[in-house]
Specification:
Chain lengths: 114, 113
């Protein structure tokens, strides 16, 4: 099961990459309190004000382009940055292994006909 | 045995079957007669559609007396839909916040540093 989002940003890819990997910048948009070592095998701890905490390991990093986090609940967050004419495109994929493919398609079908 | 994903796709390819799924989603459950009332097809045709939806794992039947009621197979489907919606909504919010962080506001000149 996977959720995919894309956003175009009027900002340089380098700047966006910083926002995706720097602890204090992540605290501005991703979680309220962030510890992250953005290197392969590095650990991340993300805390939200509602009491939720998620911990992750950095699965891979293509410097400036892509970082993949594997959360301890086996969810995966894959963040990519691509340079565009007007700035950057960020693509997010969050996936979870919690549901089988068959159920995934049923869920998508259910969403589609809502 | 067919691939379950194929089964779901072909089950939902038919507009009458989508109507059945929609009706069950809104009403909770229904009998073939009730479903046929909303469709330009016979009760027998509805029964066939229900059989197709059942073999795709989308609906289940329960018998009370002489009546068979059909409902959508519930829990895993609902929680999977919830997951898609919740995680999607969380990312929509986060990406808006990311935009506010990295895009220069009206007051800030485009090129800083």
């Amino acid at each position: 099961m996977e959720v995919v989002r894309e956003i175009e940003l009027k900002a340089d890819p380098e700047e966006v990459w910083e926002a995706l990997t720097d602890e204090s910048q992540l605290e501005e948009w991703f979680a309220n309190d962030v510890e992250l070592d953005p290197t392969p095998g590095g650990r991340g701890v993300f805390r939200w004000d509602n009491g939720e905490t998620r911990e992750a390991t950095v699965e891979s990093v293509d410097e400036g382009e892509r970082i993949v986090l594997r959360f301890d609940d086996d969810g995966v967050v894959d963040l990519r940055v691509v340079a565009t004419d007007g700035g950057s495109l960020v693509e997010v994929r969050e996936s979870t292994p919690s549901w089988s493919t068959a159920i995934e398609f049923r869920a998508l079908a259910a969403c589609a006909i809502r | 045995m067919r691939d379950p994903v194929d089964a779901v796709f072909s089950a939902l390819a038919d507009p009458s079957r989508r109507f059945v799924v929609e009706t069950l989603a809104t009403r909770g459950s229904a009998t073939p007669t009730e479903l046929a009332a909303g469709l330009p097809v016979t009760r027998q045709a509805v029964a066939k559609h229900l059989a197709a939806l059942r073999s795709a794992g989308l609906v289940e039947a329960s018998r009370t007396g002489r009546e068979t009621r059909y409902a959508l197979t519930p829990a895993p489907l609902a929680s999977a839909v919830d997951w898609i919606e919740e995680v999607g909504a969380a990312w929509d919010e986060r990406l808006d916040a990311l935009r506010r962080l990295v895009e220069p506001g009206d007051k800030t000149p485009r090129s800083r540093k």
